[in-house]
Design goal:
Blueprint: H1 7-11, H2 13-19, H3 26-34, E1 40-43, H4 51-56, E2 61-65, H5 68-77, E3 83-85, E4 99-102, H6 113-123, E5 126-132, H7 135-139, E6 148-154, E7 160-170, E8 175-185, E9 191-202, H8 206-215, E10 218-225, E11 238-245
Parallel strand pairs: 1-2, 1-4, 2-3, 4-5
Antiparallel strand pairs: 5-11, 6-7, 7-8, 8-9, 10-11
The chain binds S-adenosylmethionine.
Length: 247
């Protein structure tokens, strides 16, 4: 299955992200890049919503994005920012990157995490990675195998965009399948268009992640929980890691 975003999912990606009111990851990436001169690669750079401002702030970054629709959005908004249209799995660098960034859970779309961590290790000594843990799905707070309303947005045209989700989780092997149903409604509430997408995601309990990193030649330099907004006893929904290649 191609993990690239397309259709309404690509077009509305940034609007839904904004509607979530989650803290932005940009300052975490900015801090990380301050320690890494030289050219870095941003895997799954999407519409450029983080890539563009990071390049404008003076960081030397190239985007890598599998979805032609996302690449087009990025080039339209940030024409001077370089984006390679390719999948990470097919990407080979001529020389090592100063660092590689994979924010916003893109890594969890890769079906073979061990192999990809090894490939990342071959292309850089420094990796910035953000992963989420699906507590609401694991705990049963979200119903399995049925559609539930996720979020709604008002589009700049005045029409409405709605997102419903349906998931299936298998905790024993860390797999989460999510279907997304995007619905475009006109001002009177009538359905104009509907699209369903499917994502196969991986998630990692703490101990298995540590083992996976160790086996693929990575050690954790720094960990940041819940995008830096975590209180001491909070569950960790989002973990950001600065990883360094071990000897
Ligand atoms: C969750 S979005 C994040 C986009 C961007 N990082 C952001 O925060 O706005 C994941 C992005 O990764 C892209 N993607 C998924 N699989 C990929 C792969 N194998 N190689 C490169 N890009 C990929 C998708 O098309 C999508 O644009």
């Amino acid at each position: 299955m191609n993990s690239g975003y397309h259709g309404l999912e690509a077009l509305w990606h940034d609007l839904f992200w904004e509607a979530e009111e989650a803290p932005s990851e940009i300052h975490l990436i900015d801090d990380f890049l301050r320690d890494h001169d030289g050219t870095s690669l941003y895997v799954g750079s999407g519409s450029g919503r983080l890539l563009g401002p990071l390049v404008a702030a003076g960081h030397r970054l190239t985007g890598l994005e599998i979805s032609p629709e996302m690449v087009a959005l990025s080039r339209e908004s940030f024409p001077d920012v370089s984006v390679i249209e390719s999948s990470w799995q097919e990407h080979e660098a001529d020389e090592k990157y100063s660092s590689i960034l994979i924010p916003a859970f893109t890594f969890q779309l890769f079906p073979d995490p061990q192999k990809q961590l090894q490939r990342l290790r071959a292309q850089t000594d420094h990796l910035y990675l953000t992963l989420f843990f699906p507590w609401a799905e694991v705990s049963g707070d979200l119903p399995q195998n049925e559609w539930y309303f996720d979020r709604g947005i008002r589009l700049p045209t005045g029409e409405m965009g709605e997102l419903e989700t349906r998931h299936k989780i298998k905790e024993s092997n860390g797999s989460l399948t999510r279907k997304h149903r995007y619905t475009l409604k006109d001002k009177s509430g009538s359905v104009v268009r509907q699209e369903i997408t499917e994502q196969a995601l991986r998630f990692f309990p703490d101990a298995s992640l540590k083992k996976l990193l160790k086996n693929t030649g990575w050690e954790i330099e720094k960990e940041i929980y819940n995008l830096g907004e975590s209180e001491e006893d909070d569950l960790v929904y989002v973990a950001t890691m600065h990883l360094r290649g071990s000897a």
